[in-house]
Amino acid sequence: MDQTDRALLNLIQADFPLVKEPYRKIGELLDLKEADVIARLKRLHESGVLRRLGGVFDYRKLGYTGTLCAIHVEPAKIGEVAAYINTFPGVTHNYLREHYYNIWFTVLAENRNKLDEILELIRKNTGIGEIMELPAERVFKIKVNLQLE
Amino acid sequence: MLNMLSEQDKQIVRAVQNGLPLTSRPFRAIAEQLELSEEELLAIIRGMCESGWIRRFGAVVRHRELGFVANAMVVWNVPEELVEVKGKIMAGFSEVSHCYQRPRRSGWPYNLFTVIHGQSREYCKKVTDKISKATGLTDYRLLFSTTELKKSNMCYFE
Lengths: 149, 158
What we know:
The complex is a heterodimer.
Chain A (H helix, E strand, L loop, with lengths): L2 H12 L7 H9 L3 H13 L3 E8 L7 E7 L6 H8 L5 E7 L5 E7 L2 H15 L5 E2 L4 E5 L7
Antiparallel strand pairs in A: 2-4, 2-5, 3-4
Chain B lengths: L6 H11 L10 H6 L4 H13 L3 E8 L8 E7 L6 H9 L4 E6 L10 E7 L2 H15 L4 E12 L7
Antiparallel strand pairs in B: 2-4, 2-5, 3-4
């Protein structure tokens, strides 16, 4: 990654132009040819830095429901339990964290019933007793924007 | 809000959640599929951004590959009547990507959650110190992530 890649990523995390030819527009802003912008983005995508280019939706506004869950799992069983939890498409984030509650995951579902079904399946099929559910009651901020120097 | 989503809206959500192609006119194929002009499609997407259905349109990057290897979820025990004012102060920190109020549970007294992505644990600790000083809150814990077990893009209406 060079300085131009960094400038490119900084720009398109925040201001992706919603125009017919966005890569040409980005090129104009960074003084690059359209083909160079596309080639750089392809390379960043292939190297894994760029996950995707698109819309990040507010699940609440789409009518979905979601929650954060924390569980305690014996170290020896972490791999197996995490693999099962991760099979659900609605589980979008899952982290191992340093705490008694060592697995933290988020679940999204179309409605409360479907969310409960997923949590019940996880309880039943992993043998964990308790899932500490911590749904967001109020959102003060969501803004992931990693500026690169 | 749910009943305001038309079938066409859902089709657009499906089309733009998977990522744009890296071609000169990335919206053209989607527009054709929906029997819209590119301008019409772009106007709808802009509208979705303005109404907040789309929180952000652009690049989703992998933090770790970019050197942001430390991820701290900082949990704070905040008196109920102070949550609003302290939450707003925390949200004002550019280093904080997420700030949520969540319920307390038995044995779990923490009700405000902030996420800090940094290039090191020391950085996350320094930011937490700054937040602690700015809010006067001292009952908190940093939960660093040691492994990312999953991070994926939600596929709606599929």
